[in-house]
Amino acid sequence: MKQDILNLENKNVGTIELNDAIYGLEVRADILHRVVNWQLARLQSGNHKTKGRSEVALTPAKPFKQKGSGNARQGSRKGTQFRKGGVVFGPVVRDQSHDLTKKFRKLGLKTALSSKAKEGNLVILDEAKLSAPKTKDLAAKLNACGLNNCLIIDGKEVDMNFALASRNLESVDILPTIGANVYDILRRDKLVLTKDAVACLEERLK
To answer: Which of 37, 72, 142, 161 could form an SS bridge with 133, CB 3.0 to 4.6 Å?
Structure first.
């Protein structure tokens, strides 16, 4: 499939041939759903914790005698019915992540790229470079290109001036090719790839 190449002045500077095996796949929501769940599960810290009966700092002694008090029988102040007592079936520290094969993760990234291409939300940029790290200048150029909410993926390295200028733009993200992932692609309206990014992604996903 052919795609026009734009520059930051929103001018057409040529065309590029995109690999149909990467940008022309059938969009399957189930694949995207599984990969996004895998990504978000890995981000969970899993350090929530409550104390059970064996962990609370209370005396294990019987609070009062078994008979004659008129109260219900009790064996310990650590019971869940008491203030500061242990919690039953509370959360414990655990790893939330699960496995997903490399082949499936690669398929998920291809599917995400294909979904943006089929929606018409894929933009190919000549290069993502600036002469100075000016956020105001970058915002004006992106607005002229209709890129108010976008993820920009550059080649192996991101231009430092471009990265610094985009840092204060809330709805603009920029990543090197190695950081391209399904979740960030789907959470932004537009996906912007530089020519270097297209070459690096083809090498990564071939």
So the answer is: 161
| pTM summary value | 0.83
d(CA 174, CA 206): 23
pLDDT at 60: 86
Could you write out the DSSP letters of every residue in 114-171?
A: HHHHHHT-EEEES----SS--HHHHHHHHHHTT-SSEEEE-SSS--HHHHHHHTT-TT
pLDDT value of position 203: 92
Domain ranges of the chain: 2-43+97-205, 50-90
**What is the CATH code of the structural domain delimited by 2-43+97-205?**
3.40.1370.10
pLDDT digits (tens, 9 = 90+) for 118-160: 999 999 999 999 999 999 999 999 999 999 999 999 999 999 9
Surface-to-core class of residue 71, CB atoms within 10 Å of its CB (0-12 exposed, 13-18 middle, 19+ buried): exposed
Q: By C-alpha distance, which of 33, 118, 162 is closest to 175?
A: 162
Question: What does the buried/exposed string (b/e) look like for 24-36 if buried means 16 or more CB atoms within 10 Å of the residue's CB?
Answer: ebeeeeebbebbb
